[in-house]
Amino acid sequence: MPSDLLEISDLIVDYDVATLRPRPVSRESVVARLMANGQRSAARLVQRFPASNDTLDVEACNGALLRSHIELQRLSEEFLQADRLRCVLLPLLQALRDTGVKPPLRIVDVGCGLGYAVRSLAAHGRLGRDVELIGCDMNVSLIENARRLAEEESLSCELRVANAFQLEQPGHVFISTGVLHHFRGNDLSAFFAGQRQGHAFVHYDIQHSVLSPWGSWMFHQARMREPLARHDGVVSARRVHPTETLLSAARGATGFTCASLDGARNLLGAALRPMSATLGARAELWEPLLRHLGPLRSRLGPAR
Amino acid sequence: MNAVLPVLLALLAITDASFCGFRVAAGRDARIFKADFYRAAIRRGMLRGVFTTAAVGCGIAGACLFAPGLFSQLLVCARAILWVLLPYATLTLVGMGVWAAAEADVRTLASVVVLGPFTLIRPWVIAAAAVVGAWKAPGPTAALVTIAACGVQMAIEPWLNAGMRPRIPGGGSEGTVKQEITRLS
């Protein structure tokens, strides 16, 4: 089995980084890549995607991604992901205010997909009037739908087709959910380097544990219907970075003080908290942050 | 006791159908506020549960009219089925209760330990109940009725699933996104 499994959602859509326009993707090349990586079932799945002249149908791919994200939101809701995020953001924002950062305080969700986190925070977050919530993703279709959802419920958040690290008004706090494992090696460092402009970050991803792939398989079988979501969900859990890798990449690329939050120390911990966070903040922000964290402080790993 | 067992099974069947109603709706609507959507889905499941339970009940009542002694045989099967279903149902309801009332970590634990795995094993639990009920049946007709009733219960979720599609949000901002891309390019 290859060491680095591939996720279908990473392969079936491609964008021009400068213009964010979708680029044609060859179905055969995706299938060949998956086969070469030993992922036969994934290759069969892609083989069933509609294509004309070997170019994958963009609408069909976006449709599968959209359905997968809607199903993924259901898991986030079940595991109270927005609540967990809110519990970290409240003290973080307070620390930013204490250190005199000028409002509005911008929280930017990197790779927000359907924008569940920002929409949920806008709906229930009570983060303060001085806070702006911005969700960024490169996928036009997902952002279109995220915007419609936000408009439907009159939620005050912005959703943009954009590179989260190149906004006209840079973010103060960068957040993400289930994004970190998509970046490997230098890309992971580059991901964190993009956040040097900010003051802090909170990135949640699946807990790195022997239980995670099994748990992920179980929940994706029980809760998901879309084959792409079922496949990628399990592969995601197998691709998750160990805490050490994340902390050293984050620390090295940003120079921030970093620690893991909710990192499982045993199997019960992994069952209680299937997601863990990599938390980082500028050095001057760390002490005020610890002060405001309250009971959450005991769930913080050693700072680096 | 003769009336309690069928009533208990009917209640379990309707409760299970209501949960099925919720499950087929979950993951199909990405709005934040969707309690009404879920309530409607649970009602839909419950109504179908009431319908199928009534249909099965009527079928059994009709069969009992033509086969004297079948009812007492079915009570034996019902008792055997409940040995399988009751622990499952009790644990599921406890899991639901914990999920609804406790704080985040305990709610997650309820999901991880009970709600997720129990969703996955539900068809197997019903199948096991059918096998145990049929095994304990004093006669072949009672065994067949037991298997058929369990089969109907298993068919509820696919029936509820049929025709369900994700709720794709209505139009509104496509133009804005296209303008944004034009500007970027």
Protein described:
The complex is a heterodimer of chains A (304) and B (185). Chain A is an alpha/beta fold and 304 residues long. Chain A has 13 helices and 9 strands. In chain A, helix 5 (81-98) packs across helix 13 (283-293) and helix 8 (185-193) crosses helix 11. The relative contact order of chain A is 0.13. With 185 residues, chain B is mainly alpha-helical. Chain B has one domain (4-166). Chain B has 6 helices and no strands. Chains A and B meet through helix 4, helix 6, helix 7 and helix 9 of A and helix 4 and helix 6 of B. Chain A: InterPro entries: Methyltransf_25 (IPR041698), SAM-dependent_MTases_sf (IPR029063). Chain A: Residues 107-193 form the Methyltransferase domain.
SSE topology:
The complex is a heterodimer of chains A (304) and B (185).
Chain A: H1 8-11, H2 27-36, H3 40-47, E1 51-52, E2 55-56, H4 58-78, H5 81-98, E3 105-110, H6 116-124, E4 131-137, H7 140-152, E5 158-161, E6 173-177, H8 185-193, E7 200-206, H9 211-223, H10 227-239, H11 243-254, E8 257-261, H12 267-272, E9 275-281, H13 283-293
Parallel strand pairs in A: 3-4, 3-6, 4-5, 6-7
Antiparallel strand pairs in A: 1-2, 7-9, 8-9
Chain B: H1 4-25, H2 35-66, H3 70-101, H4 104-136, H5 140-161, H6 174-184
Keywords (chain B): Membrane, Transmembrane, Transmembrane helix
Transmembrane segments (chain B): 6-26, 47-68, 80-102, 109-135, 141-160
GO molecular function (chain A): methyltransferase activity
